Design the sequence.
């Protein structure tokens, strides 16, 4: 799909694009190097060192990685994050698709609803985390006699609610855009053929919005893995680091160690590889089911 | 050609972005990374005053609560690194020794009233304490009288327990509780995982004659810790199961006359003085060990250290600034009046702090101070966090006291090993 995007342009335009491409790419490229590539190379390099501050480092080879593999808390956080991500991807995508589906049905005031659903996305994760902590704690203390800091199950559910609430609006916008672009002729033709609502959805709408489903699952999957501020603000890993997700685990092992931050760095590198592998394979599988491939 | 021009334009743009980073200075500069958020504005004012008098630039940055270590780690690698920072005792010294300059012979060290306030390793002085603090049970005497007691009635743990439980029994009639909420939310949990936990540490260290940081604990006095904790949570303004809630605000409960006792220290004085100076009492945290002779808990976890990696000019500027702070009229006034610090320096001014005055009285009466030993906690954040989780579960009824003992004793050993890796 991507390779054909310029096919409708004239020769002259293509030339212009080719000529001016560097101008448009350069600032982004510089930002990419400064903001991503350079820190990443540094991080990779530091993961082989024992260090506390960047100016005093000692080479230790793979020692940091060995320590990570022997760290139960890392494995626990990994599994916790995996389960969390699977559930949150499902919940977020199902709900945002449903909301988008109904908000494209000419319901009265749907523009207002779209804005309302999108708003939580504009608030930062830390603020949301504290707000939801207050709300949820008040409810849990009153009705369940416990609290987020006492029961990991509530912490887990709270995290799902918080993250869903924050992200549904965002994915809803993507789905709305996709749903509005489903070719009307296809729907009409299917209706004439006697398809009912369910069949329409299954055979026409969903295949047509598959690219959006790809992008949304991809984004929500990596989002789920990278959750940090919400986790820090809502539970901070309590109780006993049982609600500590990967990013928070890395952060904690980085700052808790008074002698060697290299272990945290090694965790971060492993984390990067895992997220890339999962995201790419997911992208590959969903792509293969898209219309037009 | 156009391509080249456009590339050049881009480059020029990037260069412009980085321009303005190279301002030069001839005099040394001072950059203080301050630990205590409450005193930020006072430090800024003092820094301005110094710049006005001497022309030396003094920058004061305050790390937000609980992020000092992260901020320092990030700042210390910068070209313009802090020249003056704080380390919080022996454990902090171990982590920052490479960066702390030997202060022996410096004016600020010579101004100390006693060597007890220097953070030393061998003959070298790496830190100089700048504030001496005391905590205990801050007491609202008027409320205590309303309940029919005098502050002199409380001379032991048993007295405290009897009176607290009596107040709880008559809570509805009296309209207040014995203790303010012992919130285990992160903004308040250090009062217990740090300060209250210091009591069993103190007596165990004394029995075993521990010097420095022990590799393991026995937990001999955890039963006293438990008795105190039970007293705190069962006679408080809140139900024990809401103990982790962020909403608990012990200081305002105390200010609003909702409770008689509030475990906190001299630094809290400004916050609670509205109940009236004559109304404030300050009791030792009686642990039932040696109540007749035990006084308040005094010590420091705040030491100034000068960055060893700074340029000579900056080091000299920083030492001059410190000398000015602890000897000049403006400096000593700011320390005592604006920041409320009982500073351990020869020229230090008297502070306007009733709690500090009472603390002095205890020492004059010959009571011994429970010194701060929590500064020896290995991997302090992890150790405390696990202790807080165990305490919270125990308080809410979902966990056993065993878990608290485990977090306290086994946790110490685990973290000791982890910190030495």
Sequence:
């Amino acid at each position: 799909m991507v390779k054909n995007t310029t096919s409708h342009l004239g020769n002259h335009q293509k030339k212009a694009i080719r000529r001016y491409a560097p101008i448009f790419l350069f600032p982004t490229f510089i930002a990419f190097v400064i903001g991503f590539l350079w820190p990443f190379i540094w991080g990779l390099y530091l993961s082989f060192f024992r260090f506390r501050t960047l100016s005093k480092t000692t080479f230790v080879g793979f020692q940091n990685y060995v320590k990570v593999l022997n760290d139960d808390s890392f494995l626990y956080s990994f599994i916790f994050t995996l389960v969390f991500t699977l559930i949150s991807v499902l919940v977020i995508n199902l709900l945002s698709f449903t909301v988008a589906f109904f908000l494209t049905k000419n319901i009265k005031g749907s523009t207002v609803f779209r804005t309302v659903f999108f708003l939580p996305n504009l608030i930062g994760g830390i603020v949301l985390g504290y707000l939801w902590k207050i709300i949820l704690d008040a409810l849990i203390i009153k009705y369940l006699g416990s609290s987020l800091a006492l029961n990991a199950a509530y912490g887990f559910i709270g995290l799902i609610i918080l993250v869903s609430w924050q992200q549904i609006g965002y994915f809803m916008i993507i789905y709305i855009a996709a749903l509005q672009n489903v070719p009307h002729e296809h729907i009409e033709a299917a209706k004439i053929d006697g398809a009912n609502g369910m069949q329409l959805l299954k055979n026409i709408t969903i295949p047509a919005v598959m690219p959006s489903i790809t992008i949304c699952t991809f984004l929500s999957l990596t989002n789920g893995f990278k959750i940090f501020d919400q986790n820090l603000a809502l539970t901070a890993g309590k109780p006993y680091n049982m609600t500590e997700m990967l990013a928070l685990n890395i952060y904690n092992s980085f700052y808790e160690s008074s002698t060697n931050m290299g272990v945290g760095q090694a965790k971060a590198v492993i984390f990067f590889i895992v997220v890339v592998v999962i995201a790419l394979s997911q992208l590959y599988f969903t792509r293969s089911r898209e219309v037009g491939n | 050609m156009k391509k080249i021009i456009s590339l050049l334009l881009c480059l020029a743009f990037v260069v412009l972005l980085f321009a303005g980073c190279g301002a030069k200075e001839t005099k040394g500069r001072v950059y203080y990374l301050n630990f205590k958020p409450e005193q930020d504005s006072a430090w800024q004012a003092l820094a301005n005053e110094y710049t006005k008098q001497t022309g030396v630039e003094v920058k004061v940055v305050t790390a937000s609560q609980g992020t000092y270590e992260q901020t320092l780690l990030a700042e210390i690698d910068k070209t313009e690194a802090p020249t003056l920072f704080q380390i919080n005792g022996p454990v902090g010294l171990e982590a920052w020794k490479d960066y702390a300059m030997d202060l022996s012979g410096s004016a600020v060290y010579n101004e100390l009233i006693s060597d007890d306030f220097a953070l030393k390793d061998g003959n070298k002085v790496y830190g100089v304490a700048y504030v001496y603090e005391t905590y205990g049970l801050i007491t609202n005497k008027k409320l205590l009288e309303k309940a029919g007691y005098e502050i002199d009635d409380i001379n032991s743990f048993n007295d405290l327990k009897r009176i607290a439980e009596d107040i709880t029994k008559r809570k509805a009639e009296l309209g207040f509780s014995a203790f303010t909420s012992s919130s285990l939310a992160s903004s308040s949990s250090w009062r217990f995982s740090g300060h209250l936990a210091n009591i069993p540490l103190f007596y165990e260290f004394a029995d075993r004659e521990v010097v420095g940081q022990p590799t393991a604990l026995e937990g001999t006095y955890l039963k006293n810790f438990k008795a105190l904790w039970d007293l705190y949570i069962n006679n408080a303004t809140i139900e024990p199961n809401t103990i982790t809630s962020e909403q608990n605000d012990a200081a305002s409960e105390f200010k609003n006359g909702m409770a008689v006792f509030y475990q906190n220290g001299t630094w809290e004085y400004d916050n609670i003085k509205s109940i009236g100076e004559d109304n404030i009492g300050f009791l030792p945290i009686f642990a039932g060990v040696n109540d007749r002779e035990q006084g308040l808990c005094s010590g420091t976890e705040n030491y100034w250290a000068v960055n060893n990696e700074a340029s000579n000019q900056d080091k000299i500027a920083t030492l001059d600034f410190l000398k000015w702070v602890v000897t000049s009229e403006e400096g000593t006034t700011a320390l005592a009046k604006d920041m409320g610090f009982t500073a351990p320096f020869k020229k230090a001014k008297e502070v306007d702090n009733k709690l500090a005055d009472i603390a002095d009285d205890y020492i004059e009466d010959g009571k011994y101070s429970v010194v701060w030993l929590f500064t020896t906690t290995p991997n302090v954040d992890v150790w405390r966090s696990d202790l807080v989780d165990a305490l919270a579960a125990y308080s809410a009824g979902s966990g056993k006291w065993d878990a608290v003992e485990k977090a306290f004793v086994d946790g110490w050993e685990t973290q000791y090993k982890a910190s030495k890796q």
